[in-house]
Structures are given as structure tokens and as C-alpha cells.
Design a protein that fits this description.
Blueprint lengths: L12 E2 L10 E3 L6 E5 L9 E2 L3 E3 L7 E5 L1 E2 L9 E5 L7 H11 L3 E6 L2 H11 L4 E3 L5 H14 L3 E6 L18 H22 L3 E12 L12 H19 L6 E7 L5 H4 L4 H11 L8 H12 L10 E4 L10 H8 L2
Parallel strand pairs: 8-9, 8-11, 9-10, 11-12, 12-13, 13-14
Antiparallel strand pairs: 1-7, 2-5, 3-6, 4-5
Length: about 325
């Protein structure tokens, strides 16, 4: 039997091991990498297997060797993605990059400056780390040039960057300073447009762009200040960018609308901890949303498995937004 077994092609995963034998049942772990099917049998008579044991069919003289291999479900093998926004271990961008790498993708990271690059190097291992301050058009052009030099095509872009100047605390919205608001829009929203403009020539025909938004921009949480309107602009930008790119490409643009997360960036928002604990109570499962859960949705949107999704913000909040009037919470508020 072993003489009939061809080598597994590079980049493919081999399914549980088996071969046709007598009618005995035996552990899947003890069987070979390939199954041999009688070409005269109907599909219903062919070898069936599960993860623990299988029933083997009798060997026949004209059995046809069939190698059972498959790419991963997300199909990230031999693909390259650019991830912006890693600042530390708790960053959403770090979680997304880790999922991509676990699924076989090559990830190139881009961070704000050399200081951040040096601080995250232990986290990111040997992965390439470039620098790009998105407030500088020249640096975005340089990023595109460096990416063109080291790896093309690019199969996707993760935009997970945001900034708001809360150093003086959160002010009533009508007191928002123009400079602060415009800086937040530039870094958190317009940078997506500017990056896509620079990287468009490097993208694969069916590349995917994913940005990180918030689960709702329709709830006026005072402690989030002017960032909710900025994220609303980001959600709208996703739609218009997807439409614009559709004129001459198949590149998709989507956002993950994340609920409240335990990240270092959010910890800098005044009053965020109270909001986070409240969200934990409102979520139906009574357990906060995990960063890895957001990363998994982002990975799906980056894959061609989500080819029918474009111009959307996918709310990922573990059901928080449907449960604000939970009976127990209402009872505690009204004292019933």
C-alpha cells in the first residue's frame, strides 16, 4: 500500500488517516494518509469515517488511490496581509495578526514609529515590522514603497488604529475643540482612505480591507466623547470606499463593530471601566466580549469565505445591544 501513496503537496492539510482494509473497525490514528475507493461503487457505498473510528471496506483489485487533502477553511496559506495598529499584547490588531498567522498567512505589521516597533518586537517574533505615522502622507507613501519591495501581492489590510485627545478629560460634546476632533477623524477614519489609495496597486484582485469600528454610534455615551461621531464617519467611509473600489476592482471593504473590550487603548478613556462592567452585565451570557472573538470575525472578513460581504459593519458585541432592558437590570435600576 505504501508504494501507492504520493507525497502530500505543499500548503495542503491531510485529513484523518485511513485505507481500505477488511471489514474491521480500527482507530483512525493507525491508518494511512490515503483512502482507496472502489471506482465501481456508488457514493453511498464508499468509505465513511469519523474522528474516532471507521468501518473499512474490502480491498478490491481496481481500487483507485485518492489523496485527501484540503486547504484550511479560511484559505490563508501563501497569502500576505498587512496589519496596522499593534501597540501591545492587548491590541485588537495583535489578536488579528495572531489568528492570521495561526491559519498559515504571512503577516507584515506596521506600527506608528520606531519606539513602538522596538516594544512590540518580542511579541511579533520574526515577522516584518514597518513604521508608518498615518498623519504623514509621506510616510504612507514610503510604507507602500517598502511593501512593494518586500511582498506583493497583498491579500488584505487590517486598519485597527484610532486616537482621541482625552488628556484634559472628556468635555461635553458641544465643547469639543476643532483641532482635537479633526485629528481624531484624520487618524481614526481618513487614514483608511489614504492607506487604501497608496496600497491599491499592490492589492490582489480579490483583496479584503477590514477596519475596526464600534458596535453602535447611536448611543450617546458621555465618556466616549467625540469618538462615536468619528466612528460613525468610519462606518460611512467603509460604504463609500467599497463602492469606489468596485468601479475597477473586486476589493472588498468591511468593518467589525466591536463591543466593549479590555484593551490598553480603551483603558485611557475616562469612565471606561464602569461602562465595561455594565456591558458585562448586559451581555446575555454575563461574560464580556473577548478580543479574540473580534479577531475571529475580522479574519473571516479577510478571507474569501466572506466574498458576499461588502460595505458592511458587522456588529460583534455578544448580544449586548439586544439586551439593555434585561429584566434583572431594570429591576435593580427601579428598585423592584
Amino acid at each position: 500500500m505504501s508504494a501507492l501513496q504520493p507525497p502530500s503537496p505543499a500548503g495542503c492539510r491531510t485529513y484523518p488517516l485511513w485505507h481500505v482494509w477488511t471489514g474491521r473497525r480500527q482507530p483512525a490514528s493507525s491508518l494511512s494518509k490515503y483512502r482507496y475507493l472502489d471506482s465501481r461503487r456508488s457514493k453511498s457505498d464508499r468509505l465513511l469515517a469519523n474522528s474516532a473510528t471507521l468501518t473499512c471496506l474490502p480491498v478490491v483489485s481496481n481500487a483507485v488511490p485518492v489523496m485527501v487533502t484540503s486547504m484550511s477553511f479560511l484559505g490563508f496559506e501563501n497569502k500576505t496581509f498587512v496589519v496596522l495598529g499593534v501597540a501591545n499584547r492587548r491590541s485588537v490588531a495583535f489578536a488579528i495578526g495572531r489568528v492570521l498567522e495561526q491559519e498559515g498567512a504571512r503577516v507584515i505589521y506596521a506600527v506608528r514609529d520606531a519606539a513602538v516597533r522596538d516594544s512590540v518586537r518580542p511579541l511579533l517574533g520574526e515577522a516584518p515590522i514597518l513604521t508608518c505615522n498615518v498623519e504623514s502622507e509621506a510616510e504612507m507613501e514610503a510604507l507602500a514603497g517598502e511593501l512593494a519591495r518586500i511582498s506583493t501581492p497583498l491579500h488584505g489590510l487590517v486598519h485597527s488604529i484610532a486616537f482621541a485627545n482625552f488628556r484634559e478629560g472628556v468635555q461635553p460634546f458641544h465643547l469639543t475643540r476643532s483641532a482635537d476632533f479633526l485629528q481624531a477623524v484624520n487618524i481614526s477614519c481618513f487614514s483608511l482612505v489614504a492607506l487604501v489609495k497608496q496600497l491599491k496597486p499592490l492589492f490582489a484582485p480579490t483583496a479584503s480591507v477590514v477596519t475596526i469600528s464600534i458596535s453602535t454610534t447611536r448611543l450617546a455615551a458621555e465618556n466616549y466623547g467625540y469618538m462615536a461621531p468619528v466612528k460613525a464617519a468610519l462606518d460611512s467611509t467603509v460604504v463609500f470606499l467599497a463602492k469606489s473600489l468596485s468601479a475597477d476592482t473586486q476589493i472588498r471593504v468591511n468593518a467589525v463593530g466591536a463591543g466593549l473590550l479590555k484593551t490598553s487603548a480603551s483603558a485611557g478613556i475616562p469612565g471606561y471601566v464602569d461602562a465595561y462592567l455594565y456591558a458585562e452585565r448586559v451581555i446575555p451570557r454575563r461574560r464580556a466580549l473577548a478580543t479574540d472573538e473580534v479577531a475571529n470575525v475580522a479574519a473571516f472578513l479577510l478571507s474569501e469565505r466572506s466574498s458576499g460581504v461588502n460595505g458592511q459593519t458587522i456588529v460583534t458585541d455578544a448580544g449586548m445591544s439586544m439586551n439593555f432592558f434585561d429584566r434583572e437590570i431594570v429591576r435593580k435600576v427601579v428598585g423592584g
